[in-house]
Amino acid sequence: MRKSRVIVISFLFLSLAVVLLFGGCSEQAGNGMKVVSSTSLIAQIVERIGGDKVDVTNIIPPAQCPGHFDCTPGDIQKLVDADLFLLHGWQGEVFSDDLIASANNEKLAVVKLNVKVGENMNWMAPPVQIAAVDQVTETLVKIDEANAVEYQEAADTYKKSIVAKEAEVREKLASIKPDTVKVLCGEQQTGFVRWAGFDIAGTYGEPDKLTPQVVKDLVDLGKTNGVTLIIDNMQSGMDAGAGIAEELGCNRVILSNFPGGYQNTDTWEKTIDYNVELLVETLSK
């Protein structure tokens, strides 16, 4: 796996010369701080806090798993022109070190947002989203102190909307009594599913980790615990739990961990609304 990435990066070095020759001298739109984000989770926060004082470019498509992403010469060019690169620091962002080295941008500030609330690292959970807003805001203020007041005011406004949205979706979830629903879920959805109040009987990894024996064990676990819902993660394998749900004869939903993963879900609020409405609709049948 690592060898193949080295080959890809070697190719990118050669390709970058072409990108720089024909596109490297063009001006990016806008005059704000040029910020590159690794995912849409980060991008939508920066856009809301920074407003017209930032130009945000995202790298990993919202529907794609960060652990399966391979950068392109165009991604390198994004960092060549950037002032700030924000990423999660997740183990799955294996491309980031090579990408930063390839850009060779001495002015580039790189910040890893290791956001965690207790044991929860899922940015779709409201408490973690608030913590992420605080870290992004702190970063922008350190780099651009002249606009600190505006950044903080925008952050405070957004955090109030997160608190309001949490109360709203909590009320919707209460209608299905999640604490009475036994579930098996994809590992990457654990933080959100636990925040939502579901009773997690077990978790599972990506499709390539679901050997026949692992699936059998999960099915047995589901039968023993009376599991009635399988929760898959869109970005790490939409059909990972399909076979388990079929064996158990139970409902299955596919939630998204990133804004923009599904149509008309470009913000955190729209994404959590989509996830919660899907859960409520499925369990209300």
List the topology elements.
Layout: H1 2-23, E1 33-37, H2 40-50, E2 54-58, H3 73-80, E3 84-87, H4 96-103, E4 109-112, H5 126-143, H6 148-174, E5 182-186, H7 190-196, E6 199-204, H8 212-225, E7 229-233, H9 242-248, E8 251-255, H10 268-283
Parallel strand pairs: 1-2, 1-3, 3-4, 5-6, 5-7, 7-8
Kindly describe this structure.
The chain is α/β, with parallel strands linked by helices and 285 residues long. The protein has helices at 2-23, 40-50, 73-80, 96-103, 126-143, 148-174, 190-196, 212-225, 242-248, 268-283; strands at 33-37, 54-58, 84-87, 109-112, 182-186, 199-204, 229-233, 251-255. The protein folds into two domains: 2-168, Rossmann fold, CATH 3.40.50.1980; 175-283, 3-Layer(aba) Sandwich (Rossmann fold), CATH 3.40.50.1980. It contains ten helices and eight strands. It starts with a helix and ends with a helix.
Question: What would a concise description of this structure say?
Answer:
The protein is an alpha/beta fold and 285 residues long. It has helices at residues 2-23, 40-50, 73-80, 96-103, 126-143, 148-174, 190-196, 212-225, 242-248, 268-283, and strands spanning 33-37, 54-58, 84-87, 109-112, 182-186, 199-204, 229-233, 251-255.
